[in-house]
Amino acid sequence: MFQPVNSRVNFPQLEEKVLAWWRDKGIFARSVEARQGGQRFVLYEGPPTANGSPGIHHVLARVFKDVIPRYKAMKGYYTPRIAGWDTHGLPVELEVERELGFSGKAQIEDFGIDKFNTRCRESVFRYLKEWEEMTERIGFWVDLEHPYITMENSYIESVWWAIKQMWDKGLIYQGYKVTPHCPRCGTSLSSHEVALGYQDDTEDPSVYIKFKIVGKSAGGFSLDKPAYLLAWTTTPWTLPGNTALAVAADAEYAVVEVDKEYLILASALLGVVGLEDDKVVARLRGSDLVGAEYEPLFNPHDFNIERRRFQPNSELTLQEPDEELTYRVIATDFVSLEEGTGIVHMAPAYGEVDYEAGKDKGLDFVHVVDLQGNMMGSYPFSGKFVKEADPLILEELDKKGLLYRTEMIRHTYPFCWRCEAPLLYYAKQTWYIQTTAVKESLIAGNDEISWYPEHIKYGRFGDWLNNNVDWAFSRERYWGTPLPVWRCDACGYLDCVGGVAELKGKPGFSGFNEPLDLHRPFIDEVTFACPQCGGNMNRVPEVIDCWFDSGAMPVAQYHYPFENDTLLEDGRFPADYICEAVDQTRGWFYSLHAISTLLFNRPCFKNVICLGHILDASGEKMSKAKGNVVEPGVVIDKYGADALRWYLFTSSPPGNVRRFSGDMVAEVTRRFLLTLWNVYSFFVTYANIDQFVPASEGSLSAESELDRWIISELNQLVAEVTSALDDYSPTEAGRKIEGFVDGLSNWYVRRSRRRFWKSENDADKLSAYNTLYQCLVTLSKLLAPFTPFVAEELYQNLVGSVFPAAPESVHLADFPVADRSKISESLMADTRLAMKVSSLGRAARSQAGIKVRQPLAHAIVSVSSPSERRGLERLKPQIIEELNVKELEFKSNTEVLKLDGQGYVVSGVEVDRGKGVKVPVSGGVYNVAVPTEISPELKAEGLAREIVHRLQTMRRSAGFDIADRIVAYYQGDDYIGHVMEVWGAYIEMETLSSLIAEPPVEGVFTASYKLGGYEVLLGVKKLG
Ligand SMILES: [Zn+2]
Ligand SMILES: [Zn+2]
Fold this sequence. Notes:
The structure is a single chain. By secondary structure, this protein is of the alpha+beta class. Helices cover about 40% and strands about 20% of the residues. The strands form 13 sheets. A six-stranded mixed beta sheet has the order 12-10-11-8-5-19. The chain binds zinc ion (2 copies). One zinc ion binds near residues 488, 490, 532, 533 and 535.
């Protein structure tokens, strides 16, 4: 006997029960251990940060991470899965700053770095419990008890080792470069971080500024009036840093006379500025203007700002105040003639090209903004944040008559991906990893990686590698892996340290306190002697990019090479599989790939599923501000984790952007999980009545065409699911399963109901039981990676209760293997056709207004070929039953169509309204004709079937068991009496009843109906 199954299932409750059982039996650990000795299958867990509660997008990533290793384990692979936590970096620091009400670094330093970092350390695991509970609840099997944690000393030490490897190869340098800088966080960002934070439609000023020419001529044109070079910018705050104007040497420039002055700009852009109708007094080449001098907008020396100048060796030397400071026009090859004025304002401190031009041309270098983004010096706008200074700067220029025109534009601008402050491009010292030195290897390594979806490979990811720039990986922050570089106070000698023992072994080493904490500020105390001059070596202040931490996890999670020194050979490297959202192409996917290439010159992952983003039901981005965030816990409590998982797997391919709402999960539950459950509950109910005992798992000989068909479909399904999962396509695999379950329920079980229902236990009935049993058991195994809970429930009841020697859990079982000898393409094609013909026949009935319960004399069918006809002939009994006709006939398509309206209704035929001609609108050559005339015998039979249906419904409503024998009362007119006379035995057999031609007695469940125009009163009562 199987455990009775309630048709009204509560999935969340069922799942809690399964979870407790897994926990109790240690099923996850055993599912790994049982496969020891098998080939390894390695998942790298991209570490989340546990300082916020997990959202639906985390669930999405985690279930996709889960499904593949579960499948591989059932295929015999050894698949330990290690959890990881990302614990360093700006996100953590910002959260703590917010709690402390800090708005910048000065407050952190006043507060104390040690206290600040202690807060950070506490904050990173604030939501650990929620994360662990969610992870367990959704059935993501990963070892949460032994996770890698990026802030642990052992992890940091491995990261140091990795940095030292790069250092020894000469790939780490400190560059004075223009880098994107977040003024709020006070640190540089890497290019991949910048890529995360572009915002469209940012409003900025668009201004045209006049730069007054010094001297009496420009490019040979003599100036009898004041003359100005007109330049354009969207960042007025960089104007005090202007030290040159750039022109295109070959372009034509116009000298325009406006009022009592001359304006100079590119001829091609006169219209843009609205000067196309003004008088052009001269036309010059850009090269003619080179060397022309102009007055600074703001002489830095008047505002207590230092002025430096690029020397031929690229060094910047301090300049003395000049009495008459002049800047000049230079020619460069990046001047656009598409926008602006063809004269570009150059501020070498604030732009990459400006900086390069400054080095190239030996320009002045004027830095007017501090690292918090505030204007320095003694300008009227000093102390203001740059964006607030913008209007004030324009006001000043307007007073001096130097503002030609100002308007606002909308454009794309980068913001800090964490704090959303506008990024500023600053020239400053930053530590770089020279990834460009291994660019070819990065690109070649990508060839070996399989991406799902495939277009990411040479699209988003490939482009990113092709446009590779060096990795700015130092952060002027506190809570991170300290950059293990020490510098000599005296001679500037730099040393990189690759491990704790190495550090302790340095001559003159001191300042190290136990217990060991490699974080700031403790590590900053450590000094040793300079090997060059004996001076004092102090650590540089920077920490590193937290993306480097997570990207180093292939080695750092194992404390390699200090422990696990066989890591590279023992199968734990590289990963077979990783999976994260698409934004990680420039985040973790890149940092993994870059570090692995730099260290080992090979990729560290073979297959990657790249997930699209999740939107709300109406396609909007979920955000707390909009209040449209769907909490995963709410959905799971209502529908269960399996429903959520199934929805995420099958609703759209992993790479697509997907919409999400609780309703969509409800729909999946109804369409798939409940269909499956109903089949399961049907099977168990009848199997228990008949005391069916499966012979042995999987052994059966299918007796009927119907059984052979579903077994063929089942084996085909196993083959397809296996191939889809091998191809990292859980979506395709899931959809195949869904299709199978639909066919199982809506064809196999429906067509087989009578076989289970009939009273004699013959071979046909046994075959039906064995077939359905095999389908359900196989399904439980196929579903195990997808919906692990319901799969376990099915397996426990169907297998566990019958075969004590079978694996204790479905997750310890082997994945099914297709028996190709059981696959019959022709039978499957014939059955598909039988389904089609049945559905057309039902359509014809419905067009004719004849209920399916009303038997008809025959149906006439047209198909496209003799072989199709032969195929249908062998399935004739099924179609006859399905259509409730006494005979099935075949005719040509033309003949069948001719029948329409001649005592028949033909499915899929409609009158073409234009021409009044009857044409098949659906079905094409496949058409089914049903007669509209019903003989008195057939009518009586139809009524009998209606009575059977009503009595069955009443049995259920009265709460009787399927096997209960009943007494059925009836009362009606003579015609009803006649029907009962002819069909009484049939009705009694179908409803397990004894009919009594009397009105129902007191206390009997009764109902009255009007059937085919006749009143009938029915009553049911349980016998005994
Ligand atoms: Zn920021
Ligand atoms: Zn030294």
